[in-house]
Amino acid sequence: MRTTLAATALGTATIGLAAGWLTAHHRLRAQLDAARHDATHDPLTGAHNRAGLTATADPLITTAHHAGRPVVVALIDLVGFKQVNDTHGHDAGDHILTTVAARLATIAGPVGIAARLGGDEFALITTGPAPRHHDADVWLNGWLPHIHARLTTPVNHHSRTLAVGATIGATLAHPDQPINVWLTTADQAMYAARARRTTTATATGPAPTTARAISRPRDRARPTSRLGTVPLAA
Hints:
Oligomer: single chain
CATH class of the largest domain: Alpha Beta
Order of helices and strands: HHEHHEEHEEEHEE
Region (Disordered): 197-234
Structural class: alpha+beta
CATH architecture of the largest domain: 2-Layer Sandwich
Radius of gyration: 24 Å
Shape: flat
Low-confidence stretches: 210-234
Largest sheet: 6 strands, mixed
Number of helices: 6
Distance between the termini: 94 Å
Strand order of the largest sheet: 2-3-1-6-7-8
Organism: Micromonospora pallida
CATH topology of the largest domain: Alpha-Beta Plaits
Helix content: 40-55%
Number of domains: 2
CATH superfamily of the largest domain: Reverse transcriptase/Diguanylate cyclase domain
Number of strands: 8
């Protein structure tokens, strides 16, 4: 009888210890998952941050390239965002940021990446139609004004209409160069758009056949810019 009771008590204790270990394990795993998410996502908008973008962009570009689809890397800088903040308060500004992030996530689709890099600057990586059906450069220059219109559609917030503009710089990427090269190319296109007072611009980065030669700073050619045709409002 005593042996049976002791065995039962031991079994109960073992089950309790195992259950406690599993609970602690699941709690630790959840904490680690949350920490990884926080390290790669923007806390306000839920979009990827720069670290999350950098970690996921290169595999996306490689996969799309192997599937024969062009990959767009775009940088978006909001215009007039500070004025919204100063006039309507930070709550209104946060609403603008979360709305833009949500719109970018919709544009990116399930395989693309929408990211907030900081302040009012965002990034977008997504794929275009197969080049056998469309010329990628022509498609990109026609696509960007539509994206600009979607991102700058006014939003309602507490019975007020909020509106910001945007400047977009974009490039077509390939896997022979890391994402930082394409972000730099898109950034140069964005500054070219600002200089010419257009809302969108594209730039051509390193070509696949010369990737090794131009990887050295002294050999790297400046990207050429093809400016968009949608003028900024005066």
